[in-house]
């Protein structure tokens, strides 16, 4: 009798749609999967749900595509029971490295209520499904309490069953604004306006692509009906020019945009509100991939048709490889999981086996490519910034300091601005301000190349490798 080969192990980082699809596809093909996520429960951003202790009777009321979630949830439970997947919640991965000599990878994660303790997990291969985060652009008054990100407002509602305030304005640009406004209105907030900087006429240029996605059009129409029912005022081609208030938000001023993306003087309107939920699109999480030396293409982790990065043994799927919605993340995750399952057994996979997922991926990428330029922030947003408007709130760097670095000290890129002003050196390591700094410096937005994906206590860094006791993932 030949001894059985030991199970091959895969660490999937991120338990959103991409990570779940990948973990299931890999575990169903006999890989031993460790699914690691910083959140207390699986689901990622799209399937964020209230904690069980909150006793929500109908959590699906705040979601669409709930059946897909049920399928993922049940599949995960089955695989956990069968030993195919180990699900580690509240593990904040700060670094992944190749283990020289032995092969495979070590995944370093912070745990505990203060995230002061680090554990190391070993796996033969790694699949990065870390999703994206919201892009934030500053404007006068944006640091007032009551101004939150659009996704943050939605997370409070979906995850905590609370409203961020009683009267809200939802503003910025992107497909996320509609579900956020509809969700807030449906949960009882008065939504005074949905302020979208995109011009609806710009969608006409992509009519053929949009028509090929009736599901997306139907989804948008559903949100439109909900907004009309709640009498939410829709103001396309407008932007927020100022948030007002003393101790907290009391009102916002919005204004119309001209075709070049400049504010039209004299079109200002003021809305009373205690909440401004604002977002300007999403950015992919690339830190872990960059730490591993994976190629990043613009802002996205570069992958091939099998979702492999250019580092052997590392796959990536979902919004880390480009912003495109939950359906794209599911398709990419499925393909990545199947590819990893075959490759880790030394086999070349047959792409015909995942033809349906590949078709969904192509369609979803086409759709994302068509709508993303339409939803770009107004071209001249930076002109609204006063000299005292904070750009980097961690280090309290105002727009004047960034302008001085660019206009007087000759900085032409975000890194020079950072060295001259400290913008991007604080706790969030530029996640909040990097897009704003790039806009003010007039340079291309790039991934930030942070050494670690999370702030790491010095005690953890001081630990020698010998003191780390890797916990085998199998
Ligand atoms: C705030 C927010 C709200 C959104 N709301 C909507 C909506 O209403 N409708 C809609 O259609 N789309 C929405 N989207 C987009 C949608 O959620 C995404 O398209 C989809 O969730 C992407 O799936 P994903 O698996 O790629 O990433 P995600 O769902 O973002 O999952 C990534 C997972 O990785 C985990 N993770 C990241 N970094 C680490 C780390 N270092 N260590 C451990 N775990 C890590 C995160 O906790 C998360 O669970 C939203 C996105 C965001 C960010």
- Count of DSSP-assigned helices: 13
- The backbone outline, from C-alpha atoms, is globular
Indicate the proportion of strand residues: 15-25%
What is the residue-averaged pLDDT?
Answer: 92
Task: Characterise this structure.
The protein has helices at residues 17-27, 66-82, 150-160, 177-186, 207-211, 214-229, 287-291, 326-343, 355-371, 399-407, 414-421, 434-441, 458-462; strands spanning 9-13, 32-36, 85-88, 92-98, 105-111, 117-123, 125-128, 132-134, 147-149, 167-172, 190-196, 233-236, 238-244, 251-256, 269-272, 275-279, 282-284, 296-297, 300-301, 314-316, 390-392, 397-398, 471-472. The chain is of the alpha/beta class. It has a 5-stranded parallel β-sheet. Strands 9-16-10-11-12 form a 5-stranded parallel β-sheet. The protein has a 4-stranded mixed β-sheet with strand order 4-5-6-23. Bound molecules: flavin-adenine dinucleotide (FAD). Flavin-adenine dinucleotide (FAD) is lined by residues 13-19, 36-39, 44-46, 92-93, 129-134, 151, 154-155, 176, 179, 282, 285, 318-319, 325-326, 329, 453-454.
List its salient traits.
alpha/beta; binds flavin-adenine dinucleotide; 474 residues; 23 strands; 13 helices; five-stranded parallel sheet; globular
């Amino acid at each position: 009798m030949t001894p059985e080969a030991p199970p091959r192990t895969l660490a999937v980082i991120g338990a959103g749609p991409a990570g779940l699809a990948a973990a299931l596809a890999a575990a169903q093909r006999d890989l031993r999967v460790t699914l690691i996520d910083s959140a207390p429960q699986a689901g990622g951003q799209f399937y964020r749900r209230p904690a069980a202790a909150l006793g929500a009777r109908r959590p699906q009321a705040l979601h669409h595509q709930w059946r897909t979630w049920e399928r993922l949830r049940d599949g995960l439970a089955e695989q956990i029971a069968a030993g195919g997947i180990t699900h580690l919640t509240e593990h904040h991965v700060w670094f992944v490295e190749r283990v020289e000599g032995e092969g495979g990878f070590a995944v370093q994660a912070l745990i505990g209520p203060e995230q002061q303790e680090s554990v190391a997990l070993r796996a033969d291969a790694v699949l990065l499904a870390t999703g994206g985060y919201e892009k934030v652009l500053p404007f006068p008054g944006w640091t007032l309490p009551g101004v939150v990100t659009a996704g943050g407002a939605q997370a409070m509602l979906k995850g905590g069953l609370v409203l961020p305030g009683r009267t809200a304005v939802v503003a910025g640009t992107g497909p996320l604004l509609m579900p956020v406004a509809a969700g807030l209105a449906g949960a009882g907030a008065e939504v005074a306006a949905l302020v979208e900087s995109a011009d609806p006429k710009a969608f006409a240029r992509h009519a053929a692509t949009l028509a090929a996605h009736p599901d997306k059009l139907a989804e948008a129409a559903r949100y439109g009906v909900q907004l009309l029912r709640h009498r939410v005022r829709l103001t396309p081609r407008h932007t927020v020019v100022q948030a007002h208030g003393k101790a907290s938000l009391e009102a916002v001023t919005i204004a119309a945009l001209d075709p070049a993306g400049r504010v039209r003087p004299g079109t200002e309107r003021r809305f009373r509100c205690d909440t401004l939920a604002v977002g300007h699109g999403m950015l992919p999480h690339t830190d872990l991939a960059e730490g591993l030396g994976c190629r990043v293409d613009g802002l996205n982790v570069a992958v091939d048709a099998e979702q492999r990065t250019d580092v052997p043994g590392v796959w990536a799927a979902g919004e880390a490889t480009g912003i495109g919605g939950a359906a794209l993340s599911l398709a990419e995750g499925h393909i990545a999981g199947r590819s990893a399952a075959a490759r880790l057994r030394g086999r070349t996979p047959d792409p015909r086996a995942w033809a349906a997922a590949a078709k969904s991926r192509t369609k979803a990428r086409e759709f994302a490519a068509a709508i993303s330029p339409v939803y770009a922030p107004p071209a001249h947003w930076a002109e609204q910034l006063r000299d005292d408007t904070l750009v980097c709130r961690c280090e309290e760097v105002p727009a004047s300091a960034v302008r001085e670095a660019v206009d007087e000290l000759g900085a032409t890129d975000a890194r020079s601005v950072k060295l001259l002003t400290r913008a991007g050196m604080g706790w969030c390591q530029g996640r909040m301000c990097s897009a704003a700094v790039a806009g003010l410096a007039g340079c291309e937005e790039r991934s930030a190349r942070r050494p670690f994906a999370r702030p790491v206590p010095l005690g953890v860094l001081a630990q020698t490798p010998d003191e780390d006791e890797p916990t085998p993932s199998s």
